[in-house]
Amino acid sequence: MKSRNLIAAGALFGAVALALTGCATNETGTNDSSGSTSSLSGTLTGTGASSQGSAQEAWIAAFQTANNAVTVNYSPDGSGAGRKAFIAGGADFAGSDSALSDDELASTFTACAAGTSPVEFPAYISPIAVVFKVEGVTSLNLDADTLAKIFSGAITTWNDPAITALNPDASLPDATITAVHRSDDSGTTKNFTDYLHTVAPTAWDQDPADAFPFTTGEGAKGTSGVIDAVTNGTNTIGYADLSKAGSLAVASIKVGDSFVVPTAEGGAAVVNDSPVVEGRGAGDIAIKINRSTTDSTHYPLVLVSYLIGCEQYSDSAKGALVKAYFDYVTSADGQATAATAAGSAPLSADLSAKVAAVVATIK
């Protein structure tokens, strides 16, 4: 299928670490950005992708400042948990690092008006970083095949010939690798395993999924759990949204003949050349990422994190709140706020227009 030009590569913004909590404290403020008093009031409950955590904190603070009678809660419980909660009516919206599956799309969405469909669209685009902590090693090159074997348990020591061949100048220890994966259903895991399965299908013969498919290594809940396990462990490696890497070392992955570090512009560039998924409704903007690119200006280990809501809510007042919040999040101001807070790549003008058309339909 002919690729659609979706994202223009954006400038890399410095990541600012923000604490993940289930609820951002409502800010004091009486006026919206136009200077007029906001008429919105009520409470929104969202849950899902922990990758969006820093962005959600920043979005919520700004939105509540402009709408002082609104409270927005977001619990970073993982993409799978978020989609399940939204389908069951336990949340007003979900954040997810993977789009709704065909089976999920066939579900009854409790919060939505009968006979209507859910909407989903990109709101947050960011690289997935391969983070590590190995004594005496500050830089690391990995190709998809070696990375797949590390996380599947086929490679178990840091001085394995496959790793040393990629890092001839590194002092790799004769030490056991502790590979940390997500223990919860996670869109980050689905994106990570999609990359491995696409680029190294022999080494990683498992289909992409929210659940990590192997019992090897160490499991940790949420992005913060993976970061904590890698940070506090010995000779560790894991995968997490780049915004949460903190002071951990980050590996470069092989793209074509080069080794590429994760950057917002590299992630945006690969999404720029990726098509949308065919056969979906007008309110469903799901992207099929080109993981197998050989263009070294691209970083294919990237996630596109979605917001999921109702086309029409059973409660029209709730629909108005969701529409207003989604409108802010995907606006130029909202995307700039996320870029500053989390180092994400802002939506391009082309994709923003498509998303705005979907948000405008929410009732």
Topology:
Blueprint: E1 42-48, H1 53-66, E2 70-75, H2 79-88, E3 93-96, H3 102-105, E4 118-133, E5 141-142, H4 144-152, H5 161-166, E6 178-182, H6 187-199, E7 218-220, H7 222-232, E8 236-241, E9 249-250, E10 252-255, E11 258-260, H8 264-272, E12 302-310, H9 316-329, H10 332-342, H11 349-359
Parallel strand pairs: 1-2, 1-3, 5-10, 6-7, 6-8
Antiparallel strand pairs: 3-12, 4-8, 4-9, 4-12, 10-11
Describe the structure in your own words:
With about 375 residues, this protein is α/β, with parallel strands linked by helices. It folds into 2 domains: about 40-125 and about 275-360, D-Maltodextrin-Binding Protein, domain 2, CATH 3.40.190; about 130-265, D-Maltodextrin-Binding Protein, domain 2 (3-Layer(aba) Sandwich), CATH 3.40.190.10. It contains 11 helices and 12 strands. The strands form 2 sheets. Strands 1, 2, 3, 4, 6, 7, 8, 9 and 12 form a 9-stranded mixed β-sheet that branches. The longest helix is centred in the first third of the chain and has 14 residues, at about 55-65.
Within CATH, the superfamily of the largest domain carries the name Periplasmic binding protein-like II
Distance between the termini: 33 Å
What gyration radius follows from the Cα positions, in whole Å?
A: 20 Å
Measured by DSSP, the beta-strand proportion falls in 15-25%
Per the CATH scheme, the topology name of the largest domain is: D-Maltodextrin-Binding Protein, domain 2
Mean pLDDT: 89
| Total beta strand runs | 12
Order of helices and strands: EHEHEHEEHHEHEHEEEEHEHHH
Q: How large is the count of helical segments?
A: 11
Total domain units: 2
Structural class: alpha/beta
* Shape, per Cα inertia axes: elongated
Report the CATH architecture of the largest domain: 3-Layer(aba) Sandwich
Q: For this structure, what is the CATH class of the largest domain?
A: Alpha Beta
Uncertain parts? 1-36
Question: What is the helix content?
Answer: 25-40%
Task: Give the biggest sheet.
Answer: 9 strands, mixed
